[in-house]
Amino acid sequence: MELFSNLAQGFAVALTWSTLLLAVSGCFAGTIIGSLPGLGPSNGVAILIPLAFSLGLDATEALVLMTSVYYGAMYGGRISSILLNIPGDEPALMTTLDGFPMARQGRAGDALVLSGVASFVGAFLATIGLMLLAPVLARVAYLFGPAEYFALYLLAFCTLGGLASKNQIKAALAAVVGLGIAMIGLDNQTGLPRLTFGELHLMDGVDFLVAIVGLFAVSEVFFFIESHGKQSAIGIKLDRITIPVKDIVNSFWTMMRATAIGFIAGVLPGAGASLGSFLAYMGEKAIARDQDSFGKGNPRGVAAPEAGNNAAAGGALVPMLTLGVPGSGTTAVLLALLLTLNITPGPTLFAERPEVVWGLIASLLIANFVLLIMNVPLVRLFVHILSVPPWLLLPGITLVAYGGIYSLSGSGFDLILMTLFGLFGYLFRKLDVPTVPVILGILLGNSMEDNLRRAMIISNGDWTYLFSSGISIGLWLAALAGFIAPMFLRPLLKRPARPESEE
Amino acid sequence: MKLALSNKSDRLFGLGVVVVALAYLASAAQIPEGFLSDPVGSRTFPYIVGTIALVCGVLIAVKPDADPTWPELPTLARIGIALAVMYAFAVTLRPLGFIPAAFFSSAAISYLIVPRLVQSLLTGAGLAVGLFFILKHGLGLGIFAFGKTFAF
Asked: I need a surface site. Which of A88, A328, A397, B22 has the fewest CB within 10 A?
């Protein structure tokens, strides 16, 4: 069968010592990043991208390293949710609801093991889903012309923005800010400079890594100064770790349902893992017979969001690899990595660079087993790392971010630009303007414009060409629905309050 | 202070967006068109983007959300100082080299998060030297310990 021969090829790439080492170190770094409060998968991956380049890795290796970090961060996010009642990253928010109460009942170890197993189930099955679905979608993607791609990008902006902010207008603004920044630099088609304001440094455009690290990592420093590094002292002691066999068996079907929900949420371009864990939790609560016990330490309330968010993490890779459209903030960062490596995601990636795709998939399968070991028997190690205080962590992150970007570009101008992006990231997040669409805009802006221009060349300037095929009409309608629907669904999507920390 | 539901932030923000969008549209009008241009040309997409931004800015100013909780003035000042510190880091990284520039900025940021002088100085020194060796010799980043002003 084609699938197995592909997979065998993938394992041939993944099972070399250097790739294995990268996967293991990526998983390790990712789990740390995920578990540290305030450092989520997207900023973690963003900070590490410049470092990955300095290592001089080839495309497959760099991709294996960064996706291992990504998966690791999704696993690690639960640790501080359960022990500190602070989500290590946004998708882990739902895990605080039952994880922290469980920990307070003296079952911190059980909650960590159960959620670790749930993470494994979600991530592992989602990787298999990725393996089965991605090649099919890649074949469909061959039918896409410039008009369809233009509509697809629009769909990504609409759904991602629609769910990212309470205010649609601000989400739309965020997207056009990104698109506007993408226009800066030389015009691909005429070779003439655009919107550079005579600044020589802007001729090449704004490097998206500078924007990503600024918006995601540098802005975090301002938030920590605002909170005076407070959110860190409270916590729960972890004394012994046993395997709660009964809970794991009881929540088997919970994990299965949550995985399915999470995977679908991840594949749709949208809020990715956050939405996946949310829907998985709410779904599980809705069908449970003991609804009252949710929010009070129900083990299934721990298993569902963790299986859901890890499944969504795998699902989000599907549109990113096959269509070049990320399904979440972190996959947007991974797309930045691909573009910097000169790999164009899309159907041709599967046809021309199968070793990259299948090597990645095989590594993800291996990474899941590594992560299971790290996050169940070795979880204590990461609990110690949690106690790194913000006054040490944040300066460290700053140095790594600046050193990494400087090492890549060697330009002081880029560092100043990054600082400005950090300030804007702080202001935007304060004003509830989501930053992920900004990144997406910078990443996809030029490609979106190119597709529009190519479509108009084909049609000789006839704008109705944009709506001329069934696929593109479908995408336009989906985009419209994705933008409008959240306005009505918002009351339903309201998150339950986090449990109180103080007694 | 009274906790009135104010919305000045968004009004100001929307206004700022309008100004930037207008400036963006004005500079988009200056974009040179090539001789063999396609039907869309170099200006259309920036025009679309600028116009949507303009509309968004107006809508935000007209229909503002409630203000976020902004930090108190002293904290705001700290954030301002942090911004200045990072700007200084960006500017001095090349002339001073990684270790001195990193020492000053990380000590300052550490102090801004938790104001304990000795702890911050030690953090700065430890991070500057420790991370230099990890980044430079562990990961092979192209950074230099001391700038040319010291080394030559």
From this structure: B22
On whether any CB of chain A is under 8 Å from the CB of B79, the answer is: yes
pLDDT at position A486 over 80: no
Interchain proximity A457–B50, CB inside 8 Å: no
Q: Which domain holds residue B23?
A: 8-62
Residues B86 and B49 in one domain: no
Contact across the interface for B34 and A395, Cβ inside 8 Å: no
Whether residues B45 and A452 touch (CB distance < 8 A) is answered with yes
Closest-approach residue (CA) in chain B for A179: B49
d(CA A123, CA A99): 19
Same domain? B39 vs B103: no
Give B65→chain A minimum CA distance, Å.
8
| Average confidence (pLDDT) over A48-63 | 82
Distance CA B85, CA A164 (A): 31
The beta-carbon neighbor of B91 closest among A50, A416, A423 is A416
Count of the separate structural domains present in chain B: 2
Q: Indicate whether B44 and B81 sit together in one domain.
A: no
User: Is B3 part of a structural domain of the chain?
Assistant: no
- Among A206-215, A292-301, A380-389, the least confident range: A380-389
B114-143: average pLDDT: 88
CB contact B73 to A (< 8 Å):
no
- B2 located within any domain: no
From chain A, the residues in CB contact with B78 under 8 A are 225
Query: Rounded to an integer, what distance in angstroms lies between the CA atom of residue A259 and that of residue A122?
Result: 5
Closest CA to A91 of A274, A266, A218, A260: A274
Distance, first Cα to last Cα, chain A: 59
Chain B nearest CA to A359, separation (Å): 23
B40 with B83, same domain: the answer is no
Cβ–Cβ below 8 Å for A391 and B113: yes
Question: How far is the C-alpha of A349 from the C-alpha of A323, rounded, in Å?
Answer: 10
The answer on B100 and B49 residing in a single domain is no
- Average pLDDT rounded to a whole number, residues A32-43: 78
Interface test with A, best of B11, B62, B87, B110 (most A CBs within 10 A): B110
Please indicate, yes or no, if residue B100 is contained in any of the structural domains.
yes
Together in a domain, B86 and B144 = yes
**Alpha-carbon separation of residue A327 from A105, A493, B139 (angstroms):** 37, 19, 31
Q: What is the pLDDT of residues B75-126, one digit of tens each?
A: 899 999 999 999 999 999 888 889 999 999 999 999 998 888 999 999 999 9
pLDDT of residue B128: 93
Please tell me the number of Cα atoms within 13 Å of A469 on its side-chain side. 15
**Average pLDDT score over residue span A327-347:** 84
Q: How far is B28 from chain A (nearest CA, A)?
A: 7
Query: Residue A128 — pLDDT band, cuts 50, 70, 90?
Result: very high
Contact map slice: B 36-65 vs A, CB within 8 A: 37-40, 42, 45-46, 49-50, 52-53, 56-57, 59-60, 63, 65
Distance between CA atoms of residues A137 and A130, nearest Å: 10
What's residue A422's pLDDT? 94
Whether B79 and B125 share a structural domain: yes
Question: How far is the C-alpha of B150 from the C-alpha of A366, rounded, in Å?
Answer: 48
pLDDT of residue A88: 66
Q: Are residues B56 and B106 in the same domain?
A: no
pLDDT at A421: 95
Judge whether B143 lies within some domain: yes
